[in-house]
Amino acid sequence: MSEHNSSTRSEEQEQPFLSHLFELRDRLLRVVLVVVLIFAGLFSFANDLYHILATPLLKQLPVGSSMIATEVASPFLTPFKLALVASIFMAMPFILYQAWAFIAPGLYKHEKRLAFPLLFSSIVLFYVGMAFAYYVVFPLVFGFLVTTAPQGVAVMTDISKYLDFVLKLFFAFGVAFEVPIATILLVLAGVTTPDDLASKRAYIIVAAFVVGMLLTPPDIISQTLLALPMWMLFEIGLFFSRILLRQRADREKEVEEEEKAETEQDNELDKAIVEEENINSTNKD
């Protein structure tokens, strides 16, 4: 009998686990399907996408210069890779929504209320970081690199090397622009406090330049253009973390006052019941 009960309990425990696995599989299949559909629409425009991506460099090259393909399959594989990566980037809101829908049932109501704005903000900030890299960083970096070429050296960048270079910058700036979200999460999780972070501002600024040095090419312009926004975004995250902590303290205070009021009402009700019982017992006597 006990063996039957234990086997029944183990089956009941396995069912939720299997249902979570099936749900995860379904959501991953949806993500793959959406990426494939976007890729199917972008593939025919892969060469045009690459030309748009290469425009910041092409504008800086001397008249008559062009990019080159040093490998046999590069003219096909490089735009193909760009279209695939662009499909993933474009599908990122849907990918993050599927992740949100998977974990949301396990969150409390107040966690859902805070998690969705943070998720939406992280998507927007990632795209803003990529746009900042394309419109601000690329022209300055490529202009600097082209002008520093030694005399007699023709700048003819390989298309596959260029794609790897700009994807690295896109990822670096997209991740760097998530600094406010990371700051807010660390404060809300209780790992640190706004005052503690503010007291370490000098170290954080140095760390921003170190990260800029590690994530960007070895030129001072791209390193500085990554480090300065990270610092500014850290200050923004610090500002909003103070506001969120203040709101949390206000909510906790309201809950305490409500609990106190309910306790007082319960005490008054108990007191009224006791008095009524005393009156009834006196009348009986």
What is the structure about, briefly put?
By secondary structure, the protein is mainly alpha-helical. The protein has helices at 2-43, 46-58, 74-90, 92-103, 109-147, 159-176, 179-188, 194-199, 201-215, 220-284.
Write the layout of secondary structure elements.
Layout: H1 2-43, H2 46-58, H3 74-90, H4 92-103, H5 109-147, H6 159-176, H7 179-188, H8 194-199, H9 201-215, H10 220-284
Pattern of helices and strands: HHHHHHHHHH
Round the Cα radius of gyration to an integer and report it. 29 Å
Largest sheet: none
**Overall geometric form:** elongated
What is the typical, i.e. mean, pLDDT?
81
Q: Which consecutive residue ranges, at least 5 long each, have pLDDT under 50?
A: none
Write up this protein:
The protein is mainly α and 285 residues long. Helices cover 83% and strands 0% of the residues. Helix 1 (2-43) packs across helix 3 (74-90), helix 4 runs antiparallel to helix 5 (109-147) and helix 7 (179-188) runs parallel beside helix 10. The N and C termini lie far apart (59 Å).
List keywords for this structure.
285 residues, mainly alpha, 0% strand, elongated
